[in-house]
């Protein structure tokens, strides 16, 4: 058992078999939080299940592509473990990578079911309890791609952009109930992103192969798992502080009502470039936009 009494908030974290989800589950437990970790196939990682439950947490099987009714049942069961869910972390996901033209429709649909509809259904499942208690946090894990799409990442980026749009709209809807919505924007971290079990590559057709930007991007992503500069344990600490309002980062985020939590200098650079481009566009088209009224 851990040395810190588990009397803190109840966290429900999806996608804990590796990467940011696992790092966050470990960190939250180390801070005395009560953690319900989930993954599609817990039997594949018995050592992780034993680790988390040995420290007082719980581990549940969860496939975010299940129906709304099935996900509701899972949440109700999870709420019965510790009495409630205070923090929902929508982290589970994978990436479909390739040129838009090379991506079959069924792959785009599957991507949206996992990265958007699953988190959306889980949000809807926990909100009634949070509204009743007038407190709660929902942390949706997006990506730099959700704000700054790159060639070869269009379908994945679209799924994250949809999650961001829903999160941004939901934030003022639930704020009066004491519920905070946060969007984590991680850059490149040394996780399973890009591995075969977390990514589905569409083999580029001839025109999209290297040196085309799509081919170059796919080559780069396949090298990321071993080369990414970001430490997932440090990202987990920032995510934890953002959700709890603790620490320097958490205080800054909560006091300033920040919705998007930029994690990683590479993400910050891309977001800064995007903001500057949007500013340039808005400035150039101000007169054009104003010319369309009756």
From TrEMBL:
<dbReference type="Pfam" id="PF00106">
    <property type="entry name" value="adh_short"/>
</dbReference>
<dbReference type="InterPro" id="IPR002347">
    <property type="entry name" value="SDR_fam"/>
</dbReference>
<dbReference type="InterPro" id="IPR036291">
    <property type="entry name" value="NAD(P)-bd_dom_sf"/>
</dbReference>
<dbReference type="InterPro" id="IPR057326">
    <property type="entry name" value="KR_dom"/>
</dbReference>
<feature type="domain" description="Ketoreductase">
    <location>
        <begin position="9"/>
        <end position="186"/>
    </location>
</feature>
<protein>
    <recommendedName>
        <fullName>Ketoreductase domain-containing protein</fullName>
    </recommendedName>
</protein>
<dbReference type="InterPro" id="IPR051911">
    <property type="entry name" value="SDR_oxidoreductase"/>
</dbReference>
<comment type="similarity">
    <text>Belongs to the short-chain dehydrogenases/reductases (SDR) family.</text>
</comment>
